[in-house]
Structure formats: structure tokens, C-alpha cells
Amino acid sequence: MGSSSSSINHIPDAEKLMQETGFSAAHIFRLYERFEVLDRDGTGQLRPEDFGAVRELAMNPIGDRIIRAFFSPGQETVDFAAFVRILAHFRPTVTNWTRDGAQTEPANSRTRKLKFAFQLYDQDRDGKISREELLEVLRMMLGLQVTEEQLQSIAERAIQEADLDRDDAISFDEFRKSLEKVNIDHKMSTRFLS
Amino acid sequence: MTWFTFPADNLLCRCLCISITAWLALLFVFGIVPAVLGVSFGVRRLYMRTLLKIFEWATSRMEMGAKEKNEQLYKPYSNGIIAKEPSSSLQQEIQELRGSASCLRSEPEFEMADIFYFCRRGVESIVDDEVTKRFSAQELESWNLLTRSNYNFRHISLRLTVVWGFGVLIRYGVLLPLRVTLAVTGICLLLVLTTLVGFLPNRELRSYLSEKIHLMCYRFCVRALTAIITYHNRENKPKNGGICVSNHTTPIDVIILANDGYYSMVGQVHGGLIGMVQRAMVKSSAHIWFERSEVRDRHLVAKRLSDHVADKTKQPILIFPEGTCINNTSVMMFKKGSFEIDCTVYPVAIKYDPQFGDAFWNSSKFGMVNYLLRMMSSWAIVCSVWYLPPMNKEKGEDAVQFANRVKAAIAAQGGLVDLIWDGGLKRAKVKDAFKEEQQKLYSKVLFGEQDEGGRRDNTQLEAENPEEDKSNQDEKNDNENTVNAPRNK
Known about the structure:
Oligomer: heterodimer
Number of helices of chain A: 11
Order of helices and strands of chain B: HHHHHHEEHEHEHHEEEHEHEHH
Strand order of the largest sheet of chain B: 1-8-7-2-5-3-4
């Protein structure tokens, strides 16, 4: 028979994912193909090593953090639905979203994007970025290019500016406040071709 | 029931005899004779034109079917899923981030928002990256009636299916046996004749005959694959005492190039059939085969190559500097070893037309035998070969720069994307040097140009010994039997 390869129909939960995340059918299909390319042993689940195979990600200083962001705490595998849900954070923001308290916020709202970035810093998920957590990220981004003193002073300055309630850590609200003027939509969005 | 079956048997026998005879005659007249004599009846080009007409018809039927159902036929953006901004540098993007965030500062500093840049780049590369997609076959815009290249093409009507079925019959029933026969004949002839020629005492006669024999056998192989090759700029063909470099898509590249010229091959010694062929070839002409242990000794490799090119009576060496097969949409990093030798380099660009059969060898998906079967059951292998003007290393240029210059010329001619990435990344891990480079760029944004302590020397991003050795190690366990891709350069 001619048409023997995949169609949108055999992607699990495609309809539900489309509704939840706002991706179109074409996007879901493309993401599924990408998922299959990354899933080299064909188990239907991705492991951290599968992400590690992407060269450009391996050279990203915070590459490991980004990979971990795909995995829920304690889980070692990611299935396609979870993969898509995380990527949904990076869709450009829908500007005409009406604030309806009953419905859940879409994944790509400004707040959710900020939350994603916040969690890259806040690894122990206690809702605050401690000085140590900030230093860890700085070390990843700068490596051996700066001295330890410089790192400490950068961290000190950053905390002083953002920490409004003087508890020596940056909470999510303080984080959000310090990024008020940043065009989050533009900087934390990937233009998916449709 | 014997009285019933007997005449039927007889009839069957007769039919079989006639068809076998016809088939052999066809083979002899259109396959063997032209290959031996080096003439062409133009059958393959006619075949190609017919196929093109059929594909056009098939495409228009699919378009009609799609229009009826009001759906999209072509997959949009087969080259990627996301729109990558034209590469702005790390500096530019972070300044933009800053500009919108804070008030004026006297000195550049860290901003919490900086992480967005790395985060977005990371996610973009998860969704689509330049390297991984080069190691899987190129996707076609429309269907060429082969199941293997059917990427969710719908709207395949009954008529089209019938044509496809007919195509399967022809490819597997007629073409495949024909091709296999030709291939076997070609290889046997090569083995026998080169061994015989090896016994001749007269050196000139030996090299003359050896050239004729090699060319004849490659012609057999070309017909065995139904390869339709167009050679451009043949005045630039490689001459003795030089090195011919080319982009690498498949082991068949060797056959494509050697069909038009007499080259010396370079490669590892293999066992089995290929080993036999290698030993036979060496009896009548100079090829450079390395033992596995010798491959890692760069100096030995370089010396043997230099000795060969220094001898002007020996043929040009054929080398594929990428070291691995790429899917013919791009050219990856050339290993610098062959560019360190002091001689003229003759670049060659090979571009395959995937419409008739995808020649790319995905060594992680298919073994060699499987791959050859697929090749022999495609419609044809159609490609263009461009001989580029010879290049020499310029004064003050080092091997890496020279390699990149040659690579750029080949990419430009063949219409391929010129990438800095090392094809060996297929198997090896990315070196930390790349990550360091990013860290360096970012620290420059924060601190400007500085020579503070704690900084390591930045090693070159291009070909380096440890990386090549690592990819050698990985490739030892691989069954990539390219006769002609020196690993250690």
C-alpha cells in the first residue's frame, strides 16, 4: 500500500494535546517526528542522554538545567505528552487571552514563562532563589572565565537589587518584579512555523 | 492427473526458457558489452526521462486529489519547524534583553534576564538543530513512487497505487536481478583480471592494462546501480601527484568518481569480500591500505601519502576528508590531515538527485548489504559531479584554513550548506571547548575584554587530535565499510 507512514491519528492523545497547548495539528506532527528522532532506542520515552545527543544543546552552558526542566522531580523519563507540554511554554504569548478564573492559564502566558525561567534557577523548588542557587547558575554561565570573588560580587549585587523583603533570597514575586520591563514574550518564545 | 499437468509443465518450461534467454540477451547487449567497450547506448538517459514523466503525472494526480479534499499536499517547511532568527550574536541579544529591562548603568553587570537567552537557544536546539538532521535522509517534496520515501503522502488514488505496484514488480523482478548479475560479473572480472595483470613483468604494460581493467570494472558497477552521472568541467580532472578531495554521502561515491578517472584509494584493510578486492587491486596498481593499528599513527599515514604523491607516475589519491557519510544537504568539517601534505588539491563536488533514489547511507540504520539492496532496488542513482579548479595552500595559510577554503568551494559548487560541525559528532560527544566559547562570549558582555586570571587557553574549535582519536575509537566498533574514508587525519 502506498501510504504506510505515520499520520496524526496514531499520535497518542493528539487532540487533547492540541487543546491544552494550543499547538496546531501540523506542529504536533512535526514535534512527534522530532521526538522520534531524539528517541533513538525507540522506547517512546526520552531519557536525559537522548537530549544530550543534541550538539547545540551540549554546548549551551545551562544545557543540563534545560534538560532537567523536562523531567518532573523524581522521574527519569519523559513521554511525548510531557515533552509537548514543556515546549508549549515557548509558544508566543496569546495576547487576546481573556482572564477567566475558571480555566487554567495557558502554558505560554507571561507568568508561566517566568515560572519556567525561575525554576531553572530554583532547583530545590522551595519557591526562592537562594544565594547558593544563583551562584550555581553564574558558575555555569561563566565557567572559568571569571574568578570566585567576581562571581560572589555579581551574586551579591543581583540579590541586593531584586530582594525587596531582605530575606537574602529572591522569591518568585521579586523575580517577576525585577523583570517587569523585559519583553518576555519575545525573549522566551520560539517562532513555530505554521 | 499427470495427463493434465504434462502439457502445462512443458509450456511452463518453454516460457521460462524463453524469458531467461531474452533476459540474458538483454543483459549482454545492453549491460555487458557497453561496459566492456566503454560505449553507451543512451538507454539509461531514456529511462530517466521516462521516469520523470511518470513522476510528474503522479504528482499532478496527488495534487488533484488534495484539491478535491481541500487539504494541503506538501509538508510546509520540510527544512525545519521553527523560524530561527538570523544569527544574532550572544552580545547583541543580551544587550537587547538589557535595554528593555533596566535603567542606565555605568558598568555592564549580570541581569537575571540574561538566562532567557541561553534558555531559548537551548529549547530551540531541542526542537530543531543543524547537525542531527544531516544524518537522516533528505525529505522529498513529492513522492517518487517508492515506499521508503513516502513521508505521510496521502491522496494516493487507486490508479496511483496500481502504478506503484507495477513499479515494485519492475524494480524487484526485473531490475534487481539484472543489477545483481552485473555487479557480480564486474567484481569477478576485477578480481580475476587484476590478479592476472599482476603477473606481467613489464611495468608500463602492467599499468596501462590495469587502468583499462579498473575503468571497465567501475563501468560494470555503475551499470549495476543504474547510475546516471553527469560530469562537469572535465578539464579540471585530477592529475598525477595530487590529491582529489570530495564530499562524502555514500560508499558509492568511490564508484562514481573512479568511473571517470584512475585513482589510488586509501583506506583500512578489511576482511571478507572487500579485503579480497583490496588485495587484488593492489597487485596491479598502487593503493594505500592501512592496517588497523597503523591508522592511529598520524605520522605514518602522512608519510605514506606524501611518498605516494611525490612519485609522479602514480595516480592521484582519492580522499573523503569528512570522514563519515553526510546526507548530501551539507558539507561538514574537513579533517585537516590530507591538507597538511604539500601538493595540489583537486576538489570535487558530488550532488545526488534524491528523486530517483536516495543514495545517503545511514550507517546507524542500515548495514552495508541492506544498503546495497536498497540502492539496487531504487529507480536509479542520478548525480552530478563537478571538477573544481585545482587549489594549493597559500603562503601563511595553515592546514585548517586551507581545508575550510576547499570546503567552501565544494559547498558553493554543489549547492550544499557549509557547516563548521565535525561529522564525527555523529558518534562522539561535543567537546567542552564549544561550551567554553559560549562562556567566554558571555563573560565579555559582563566584563568587556579582559585578561583576568583563571582563564584557560582556548583550544581551536576545529579538527584536533583527541577528538579524531576518539571518533576513531568509536568507528572501530562500527561496521561502516567505506573503502575510502581515512579515519585518522
